[in-house]
Design brief:
Two copies of one chain form a homodimer. With 255 residues, chain A is of the alpha+beta class. Chain A contains five helices and twelve strands.
Chain lengths: 255, 255
């Protein structure tokens, strides 16, 4: 499993991914799930992947080969006219690769892969897509402007409580890291290092790409601050009414 | 789906459950998942249920019938010598009921149910069990002294971060409610009202059983306090190093 999240804000895009790949518990490896494509001043995109590793590697590798050829060789992330067309293209490439391995001899085998594609083309708005294994893409809604793939449930509550389109890129990035941290703590199939990408709206420069190991000072400080903050927060939650009576020495109910 | 959690503390036991039962999205109903058995001063137990509604109703109903008969009619929650024996008994009853409905005509149908059993018998320690659909029970470990059934993932991170055996019953109860709230916000298959049970160690009186509707003032205050607290906490998280440079008017990095 893995866990990746993409957030579409008024100010741009935040993406975060873990690096754990596993098949059962005794085949664990570390692969980045964030792959970037940058044409300075023209367009930049990041593709986050989850699912069958052979499929995701083949998809990334084909998209990279296409992007290095020129337009006459067919569609590529370098030439497609919009982020939406790029999302459909990733879907078609993914589905073609899955079908290539489908065989009667292994009819039960699944080669599913799911992607998050985000980026901006000069003169257009930043956009964010989730691309299903079947190849069809969706965009997020302004009411819930994020998309997740992989082991998504552990990290969803904090996103549901905090993320709005007006949030700053940095606050959304901190929220994405807390969401990743929650998934890492609660599930062995999500693991470090964490990749964080920030694309500021209108600034087509490849974005800020930071990688955090578990012992990277910023991540250590963030995890500590969050955990201590939650514990303090618990001390300030409202008391049950029966807590006021048995102990006359206890303080009156909070605000 | 549903969501229930049980927490085993030095001071006793905390249990929480939601009330949503659904089969698809157009068959939604409200059933309590917390069922209590009390013999004042002698023993008290609560059984939390998740899974096939016909199975869980039949199990509860059989356990209630047995408990009303006297010992000569066979084992019952009223007479079994330990909480562990009670857990194995619940498992046997559950499996027998599932097998009763298994048929060749509907070989694909599942009648699975999962239970949390908690309580105390006078002179013994409070105990907590999760009983799998196959009928076999487990207890929690002191490193992670809680057990969950149903839609468990959304509410797990906050338990992982906060729960230790030394926590007070009231703080653990607030944590259980926050965990339920996280699952409710993020998943439609978990819904109010919430049942909260608190068994204080050595006090065999049926415990404190409280039910919270979404508009019960305490639950409203807890949800508000938690959400506002999280938002404040976000404002105090450490800044990224690049946040110090672009805006000279911004405050210096926090503690």
């Amino acid at each position: 499993m893995t866990y990746c999240v993409g957030i579409l804000l008024d100010d741009g895009i935040v993406l975060a991914s873990d690096s754990r790949t596993n098949a059962g518990v005794d085949q664990i490896a570390c692969y980045t799930k964030t792959h970037t494509f940058t044409w300075l001043g023209q367009r930049h995109m990041a593709l986050l992947s989850s699912g069958n590793l052979a499929t995701t590697q083949s998809v990334i590798s084909q998209l990279q080969r296409e992007a290095q050829l020129n337009d006459s060789h067919g569609p590529s992330l370098a030439s497609l006219g919009s982020m939406e067309e790029a999302a459909h293209h990733v879907g078609r490439v993914s589905l073609a690769i899955q079908e290539q391995y489908a065989s009667k001899a292994h009819a039960e085998a699944r080669f599913d892969a799911t992607f998050i594609l985000a980026g901006q083309i000069a003169g257009q708005s930043p956009q964010l897509f989730l691309i299903y294994p079947e190849g069809n893409p969706i965009t997020p809604s302004p009411y819930s402007p994020f998309l997740q793939i992989g082991e998504t449930k552990y990290g969803k509550p904090i996103l549901d409580r905090i993320i709005t389109p007006a949030l700053s890129l940095e606050n959304a990035a901190r929220c994405a890291l807390v969401s990743m941290d929650s998934a890492m703590r609660s599930n062995l199939s999500v693991g470090p290092p964490l990749d964080l990408m920030i694309y500021r709206r209108g600034q087509i420069d490849g974005g800020i790409h930071t990688r955090f190991e578990l012992n990277t000072p910023y991540l250590v400080a963030l995890r500590k601050s969050w955990n201590n903050g939650l514990k303090r927060l618990f001390q300030r939650l409202p008391e049950f009414n029966w807590e006021h009576f048995p102990h006359v020495q206890s303080p009156p109910p909070g605000e």
